[in-house]
Design goal:
Elements lengths: L6 E7 L5 E6 L6 H14 L3 E4 L10 E3 L2 E3 L1 H31 L3 H8 L14 H22 L4 H4 L10 H24 L10 H4 L3 H5 L3 H19 L9 E4 L4 E4 H28 L1
Antiparallel strand pairs: 1-2, 1-3, 4-5, 6-7
Helix pairs in contact: 1-2, 4-9, 4-10, 6-9, 6-10
Length: 284
């Protein structure tokens, strides 16, 4: 196992000067940031310059054992590590997914993200956009109820995609998640850059309540949470939406303007899961 020293670092393109945040812990580097950093380097076809405090490379030299590695050789090391440790395992996983589900990877990705992935950093920055987002949040509980109307227990226990959560789990997850964001808004509005507490949503979705309970209690939680959240947001100033909380998993500050956009996306994301499944069930 390769071990890395604790800390944060940046990857910089030698041609554009762009930097990408990169965080790792003592035991392992998260693949998400690595893929993002290395993909940019590979796409630009440039040498990698790894800035301090990433200690496994330094700005002026890199050491492996007692050997000093020249700058032009670092890109080869980065590319080799990326291909061997990141790309090939991901490709293998995609092949396994396709073999297990019988669904092409591109089609499976569309089932996972029917509205596309959220673009990190998207913010509701104008009064018009904030008002539009708040309207979407206000109307979401009604749209969710409409999408669930008439589904029986067998349909509620149908995964929205192969290997995915059931509709029942989706609804309970939405209640868990949207209750969390209301709490995070309150923290950010009353404290200076509070550190939020992430939760393991996949494990929460496996609890007996999420797997077996009727969806009505969670629909009531969603309706109540959104009603209070909407009143709160309509009373917020533009400056309030600039307030932030710190996300320890992402190692960054997130403004309430971005959190609002994220949950507009999150609402539509799961609503599309349910509506698309209904369409497929109706055609069977």
């Amino acid at each position: 196992m390769i071990r890395y020293p604790p800390g944060k670092g940046l990857l910089r393109s030698a041609t554009t000067g762009n930097t990408v945040d990169h965080t790792h812990d003592q035991q392992q580097i998260a693949h998400g940031p690595l893929v993002s950093c290395f993909a940019r380097l590979l796409n630009e076809n440039v040498e990698a310059v790894v800035l301090s405090p990433l200690r496994w490379f330094s700005l002026t030299r890199a050491r492996i054992g007692r050997a000093t590695i020249k700058l032009e050789e670092r890109a080869k090391i980065v590319r080799s590590f990326f291909l061997d440790r990141i790309v090939e395992p991901i490709v293998d996983e995609h092949k396994r997914n396709e073999m297990n589900t019988g669904i092409p990877e591109a089609e499976l990705e569309l089932l996972k993200y029917p509205t596309g992935k959220f673009a990190r950093g998207t913010k509701a920055e104008t009064p018009e956009r904030v008002a539009s987002c708040v309207d979407i949040i206000e109307d979401f509980p009604r749209k969710l109820r409409s999408a669930l109307h008439g589904l029986d227990d067998v349909q509620l226990d149908t995964p929205y995609r192969p290997g995915g959560w059931t509709v029942r789990q989706l609804v309970h997850h939405i209640a868990d998640s949207h209750g969390q964001i209301m709490h995070r808004f309150k923290l950010a509005l009353t404290e200076d850059k509070p550190v939020i507490k992430p939760y393991l949503e996949a494990k929460w979705a496996e609890h007996i309540d999420a797997r077996t309970m009727p969806v009505e209690p969670s629909l009531q939680i969603i309706s109540g949470s959104h009603a209070r959240w909407v009143v709160l947001m309509r009373g917020m100033s533009a400056k309030d939406f600039q307030r932030v909380f710190f996300h320890p998993e992402q190692q960054r500050e997130i403004s309430l303007a971005e959190a609002l956009e994220l949950y507009v996306w999150h609402s539509g994301h799961h609503l599309a899961h349910i509506e698309n499944l209904r369409t497929r069930l109706a055609s069977e």
